Every structure is written in C-alpha cells, then in structure tokens.
Amino acid sequence: MTIGGISAITKGEGASLSAKISSEKGKFDALVNEAKSLAKAESGVVGKNLSSSQTSYDGRINGDWTSGFSGAFMAESDKTALPQGAAANQANPNVVQGTIDRTSKLYEKSLEMESYIVKMMLSSMRKTVMKADSQNDYAKNMYEDMLYDEYATMMTKNAGFGLADQMYLQLSQKGGVEA
Q: How many CA atoms lie within 13 Å of 77's alpha carbon, on the beta-carbon side?
C-alpha cells in the first residue's frame, strides 16, 4: 500500500505555488497588453475583454476592495505634470523633459504596473521574515497577501518612485531625445 507520493511530501504546496505563479504571470501579461493597447489608442475602454455583466466603473469588478488608482489624479495641473522620482533624474542632458497627463488611462495603467513591481519587491522581502508559528494557514496567507497589495498601492501613490512616469513617457513617446 502506497501512502502519499510527491504530494504527500510537499503537502500540496508545489501545485499551489505553481498555480499562484501561473496566475500572477497571467495578470502581469494582461496588464502589459492593456497598457500597450492604451498607448496606441488612448480612447480604449479598460476591461473591454471582460465578459461579466458584473463590471462596474473602469474595469473594476463589484466587490473589488482595493483602493486602486482610478480618480487619484483629477486636478487640472495633473494634465501637464512634470515627471518625478527616477523619471526626473535623467543623467543624459540631451533628453527633453516631457510632461505627463496623470489623468489619462495610460498613466493609470502605468501606476498599476509600478504597483505590481512594488508588490513583487514587498513579497520577496516578506519571505525573508521568520515567522513564530510554523502553521501554514491559507486564510491568513490570503488576507496578508491582500494587505501587501494595499501596501504596494499606497507606496506607489505616495513614495514617488517614478517608474510609472518612466513607463508613461516611454509608451506615449513624449520623452524623446533632442536632435
């Protein structure tokens, strides 16, 4: 009589980790593709590929609990804002400093991409912390992951890394080099 196998040794964590990685990669690829399509046509509708009738504003699904980036920048001055963070610190004096329309969908998607990168960084840092309880509680891990999603969103909004600004300038081709 055989008891278990590989799954018994890893307690099913290998399959769970593989599924999580596959899911994250799918989300990342979808975000990149949507940002590219918005760069080509700024008038695109976010979430147009969703088949659910449960879609509310700007592609968010009813029950989405995160704060998100929709409506974060609404002032008239946000339409011609200067880059900040890494995007503002150009080492090349020949680069023309472009302006950013922070009210656009392209910038919103750039913020989501920056948030995703910050989330990956925070998740890697979180894995280095030793936990007192060795018990692997699924619900606790899920809510902790949602907490770190929100941390990433807040850090993206407030820290001024400038990754979203760089992405926006690159995708909109507003950050060109002088001839």
A: 2
Nearest alpha carbon to residue 176 among 101, 91, 94? 94
Look up residue 121 and give its amino acid: M
Q: What tens digit of pLDDT does each residue of 32-54 get?
A: 777 777 666 554 444 455 444 44
DSSP state of 73: -
Q: Residue 47: its pLDDT value, please?
A: 47
Distance CA 101, CA 17 (A): 38
Tell me if 102 sits within 8 A of 79, measured CB to CB: yes
**Which residues lie below 8 Å from residue 51, measured CB to CB, with a gap of 6+?**
none
Classify the C-alpha dihedral 89-92-97-100 as positive or negative: negative
Q: Measured at the alpha carbon of residue 68, what is the angle toward residues 64 and 119, in degrees to the nearest 5?
A: 100
Residue 23: how many CA atoms within 13 Å on its side-chain side?
6
Q: Using one digit for the tens of pLDDT, what is the confidence trace for 11-26?
A: 667 777 777 888 888 8
Q: Where are the alpha helices (DSSP H) in 51-174?
A: 105-127, 138-159, 163-172
